[in-house]
Specification:
280 residues, elongated, P-loop_NTPase, 2 domains
Length: 280
């Protein structure tokens, strides 16, 4: 018998949501992409499939920072209705780590008493962020990073340098490739080496802030660099430097969340990120 809840885990960009929708198509008899079922799934109008994810904040024009109880509430009604096509009902919760406390508790009640012939597919890059009681009620399916050969086959137009930094994640490779001239990666390298001068920081921060994903990309690369610095220092036994790098990484994450969550000045935030990360 098919278990009623699955937790699909893996790094960002590895294809967790793609797999969840693939499984949904299998359950809903929509394997043929030309079928009416498949077309309804693609259009988001299939009566036996419900997707829950972070909604767009219309005032800020970006995804909200959490999934709320109001977002989860329709699941209860959906699962207690008869399947429109007499088969399975499928719920996909994409980005389950974003469930706030109230949303997580609402989902937990559904996982504890699931109706028959329903499947919940939860995706997450951070399984540790979920309630242990949610994890315990799900079968875990962990996606591994793609091999170098698979990455080259999937993304033939992406440079070898970007593929190497993507760590086997196609989505991350596409994200990193937005730094088309490598200016953001070079800026991050200079920050980590403590070589950035004030006038350069001012000009580059303004340029990066104007790019659609510039701020997010800088924070991602800078956070990765600080995490590598912390791991390297810990392996050498330099616990003081490892602790400093770990704290810098945490402060950078807080700065990113606050800047994106409150729509703060990204250029100013980039200068703050450069300042906090350049100290060693």
């Amino acid at each position: 018998m098919l278990h009623h809840a699955w937790l699909i885990c893996g790094p960002a960009g590895i294809g967790k949501a793609t797999l969840a929708f693939r499984l949904a198509r299998l359950l809903l008899n929509a394997e043929n992409p030309d079928s009416s079922q498949a077309r309804r799934i693609a259009a988001g109008t299939h009566g036996d499939l419900l997707e829950i994810s972070r909604a767009v904040d219309e005032k800020k024009g970006r995804l909200r920072g959490e999934i709320t109880a109001a977002d989860v509430r329709p699941v209860q009604t959906f699962l207690h209705h008869t399947a429109t096509e007499g088969g399975w009902r499928v719920v996909i919760v994409d980005g389950a780590e974003y469930l706030n406390r109230f949303a997580a508790n609402a989902l937990l009640k559904i996982l504890e008493e699931p109706p028959p012939r329903c499947v919940l597919l939860l995706t997450t890059s951070s399984p540790g962020a979920l309630l242990p009681t949610i994890r315990s009620r799900c079968r875990m399916l962990t996606l591994s990073a793609l091999s170098d050969a698979d990455m080259r086959a999937a993304l033939p137009g992406i440079s070898a340098d970007v593929l190497a930094r993507a760590h086997g994640s196609p989505g991350r490779a596409l994200f990193l490739s937005q730094d088309r001239d490598g200016a953001i990666a070079s800026f991050v390298a200079e920050i980590l080496a403590g070589q950035v001068r004030g006038s350069e920081t001012m000009a580059l921060s303004e340029r990066i802030a104007r790019e659609a994903e510039g701020f997010a990309l800088l924070c991602d690369l800078l956070g990765e660099g600080l995490a590598d610095r912390a791991r390297s220092a810990a392996r050498r036994g330099d616990l003081a430097k490892a602790d400093l790098a770990a704290r810098q990484c945490s402060e950078l994450d807080t700065l990113r969340r606050q800047t994106e969550g409150f729509n703060l000045d990204k250029a100013q935030a980039i200068r703050q990120a450069a300042e906090l990360a350049s100290g060693s």
